[in-house]
Every structure is written in structure tokens, then in C-alpha cells.
Design goal:
single chain; about 325 residues; Spore Coat Polysaccharide Biosynthesis Protein SpsA, Chain A; eight-stranded mixed sheet; binds uridine-5'-diphosphate; binds magnesium ion
């Protein structure tokens, strides 16, 4: 690793997180590099291996050793896509940075349009939005619908068609990197940033090779990160439910006292059981919501690094001519 050997500042950086993508790397580069070459811009391609157990790193090493614009980064273990994107963004030196998936679901042919929107229309963030989400399992499709609905209601962000395929101007990249959270939600954070935005649309292609490695639990965890980092409304729900039950308890209390003093026999055993069950579950539910926020605070308070880089490979730019 030799940082001094980096070529002079590229105009465009492309960041791609890769986890178990050995089946896609060759076709990815075969599609992407020709597109980048047609642009009248110097570029660097930052490929981040997110601790893949397969041959992803061997392939990246080989490609980075032979191609001067490729910088291969290896994380010490699987830190997750969000952290891998962050690693790439922190390494990127370009005046604009494009982030995209490595399974060719984000078509590289859109890149010239993104660069055009950035350069000619002055967009500071160009978002590629999905018009079609691509084939997915029913659970993922349904889960995503519910998640985006809740996030939209809680935070006001409508990002149901957003993807991680974006171009960020240097200003936006620096602003994003100044956001200190350990748990990232890239799509939400770029929305939060503001800046002048343009959208372009694409249909998600089917995955080129391999399989999607996100488990349902990982998606759920990212959803919880998103919700807890963009809204505190769930905490107010707890208060609201408490208030509602307080009002209800005044009414029920008065009625019970009235029955007692008017000498009517109280046969309220069922009511007692039902109330206990309802209140018990509401309390647990509320504790769960509070616990979720505490867990996030705990993770943030530890301030651990988001990822650890073990290797960084880039061919020294001794041979001029190629860009
Ligand atoms: N990815 C990653 N780390 C992970 C999981 C995925 O870097 O722990 C990468 C993966 O290699 C791909 C991108 O993130 O380039 C999107 O992942 P995937 O295709 O599995 O997600 P989906 O398209 O199903 O949302
Ligand atoms: Mg994919």
C-alpha cells in the first residue's frame, strides 16, 4: 500500500461495495469500464470488498494490479453494505462520486446521463430512482412496502423508489461524511442533506450472477436504523398511548367506584384479566420502543470505527496515457 502513488485527483469516482460478487466482477468491469472511458473525465473506480469469503478479493487484487484506475479496498470482515459505501466515499477523491451496486442491477449506461445532470444542470445530487423494483420475494416486497410507508409517515421522507445508485457532488459527499452516525442509512441521509437534486429513472435489472446476500433480519435491522435515526415519533406514541389509557382509566375508575358505593355486586373478573393483558402488552411494547432507541444510543456512544480496512491496492501510475 502506497498512498503517495495515487494518481492526480480524478474528476469522477465510482464507488462499488462488493460482497460475495465473484460471479459478477468480470462482467461488471466489462460493462462499466467502457462507459467510463467514453466520458471526457478522469476517473477512479473504488471497489470495496466487504469481507467476502469467496474469491472476490483475489479478483479485485488482480484487476487493481493491471488497471491503473482501479483502487481495491478490503475490509477486515463483513461490515455491511452501508459501511462499505462509507469506506468508499471516504476514500474517493473525485469532484463527483457515483455509488452503485456491483451486481449490475444498477445499469452503468445511466452514468453519462448522471454526469450530464451534474455538470450541465448543476445538480448536486443525482438520484437514480427505480420505476420497477425487479423480481423480489414476496416477503421483501411486502416488507419494503410497510417499511417505506412507516418511514414516510414518521419522517415525511418519501424514498420508496430511491436506490443507492446516486451521483454526489463533492460538496454533498463532504456534508455526508460530516454526519457522524455509526449506523448509516445512505438513502435517508442523502435525502436529509438537501442540496439541489435531480432524478433519473431506471428499471432495476435482474441480478447478473450470485444471489442477494441480505437476509430478512439484516433488512429489518436497516429499517430500524432508518426509522430510529430519522424520527423520534415512536417515543411520542408511548406518551400518547399512556395519555389515552389514563383518560380511559379515569372513566373506568369512576364507574367502578360508583358501582362499589351504590352497593351493586361487581362481577368484574373478566375486565380485570383483560385490562391486565392489554396493559401488560402495551407496557412491554412501549419498553421495546424505548429499548430500541437506547440500543441505538449505546451503539453510537461507543463510537467504534464503522469499518476497518486491511488492504488497499492501486497500481502506481507510472504508465501514462491511460485514464
Ligand atoms: N453488499 C455489501 N455488503 C453486504 C451485502 C451486500 O457490500 O453485506 C453489496 C453487494 O455486493 C451489492 C450491493 O451491496 O453490490 C447490493 O447488495 P444485494 O444485491 O445483495 O442487495 P439487493 O440488490 O438485493 O438489495
Ligand atoms: Mg442486488
Amino acid at each position: 500500500m502506497d498512498d503517495n502513488a495515487l494518481p492526480s485527483q480524478p474528476e469522477l469516482s465510482v464507488v462499488i461495495p462488493l460482497y460475495k460478487e465473484e460471479a459478477n466482477i468480470v462482467s461488471l468491469l466489462n460493462t462499466l469500464l467502457p462507459v467510463l472511458k467514453t466520458l471526457p473525465k478522469t476517473h477512479e473506480l473504488i471497489l470495496v470488498d466487504d469481507g467476502s469469503p469467496d474469491n472476490t478479493w483475489e479478483l479485485l487484487k488482480e484487476k487493481a494490479a493491471t488497471h491503473p484506475t482501479i483502487l481495491a479496498l478490503r475490509l477486515s470482515r463483513n461490515f455491511g453494505k452501508e459501511a462499505a459505501i462509507r469506506a468508499g466515499l471516504e476514500t474517493a477523491a473525485g469532484q463527483a462520486v457515483i455509488t452503485m451496486d456491483g451486481d449490475l442491477q444498477h445499469p452503468p449506461r445511466l452514468i453519462p446521463d448522471m454526469v450530464k445532470a451534474w455538470e450541465q444542470e448543476g445538480a448536486e445530487i443525482v438520484e437514480a430512482n427505480k420505476t420497477y423494483r425487479g423480481p423480489e420475494s414476496l416477503l421483501n416486497k411486502f416488507g419494503a412496502k410497510i417499511f417505506y410507508y412507516i418511514l414516510n409517515k414518521l419522517s415525511g421522507y418519501n424514498i420508496s423508489n430511491a436506490s443507492d445508485f446516486k451521483l454526489l457532488d463533492r460538496k454533498a459527499v463532504d456534508a455526508l461524511l460530516a454526519m457522524n452516525e455509526t449506523n448509516m442509512f445512505y438513502r435517508g441521509m442523502t435525502t436529509w442533506l438537501g442540496f439541489k437534486k435531480t432524478k433519473i429513472f431506471f428499471e432495476t435489472a435482474t441480478r447478473q450472477g450470485g444471489v442477494s446476500t441480505w437476509s430478512f433480519l439484516q433488512r429489518l435491522n436497516l429499517s430500524l436504523t432508518a426509522i430510529t435515526s430519522f424520527s423520534v415519533l415512536p417515543l411520542y406514541f408511548v406518551t400518547a398511548i399512556g395519555l389515552l389509557f389514563f383518560l380511559f382509566s379515569i372513566g373506568l375508575g369512576l364507574q367502578t367506584l360508583y358501582h362499589k358505593f351504590s352497593g351493586q355486586a361487581v362481577s368484574g373478573f373478566t375486565t380485570v384479566i383483560l385490562l391486565l393483558l392489554v396493559i401488560g402488552s402495551l407496557l412491554m411494547f412501549s419498553l421495546g420502543i424505548i429499548g430500541e432507541y437506547i440500543a441505538r444510543i449505546y451503539q453510537e456512544a461507543k463510537g467504534r470505527p464503522r469499518y476497518i480496512v486491511t488492504e488497499k491496492i492501486r497500481r502506481p501510475p507510472e504508465s501514462k496515457g491511460e485514464k
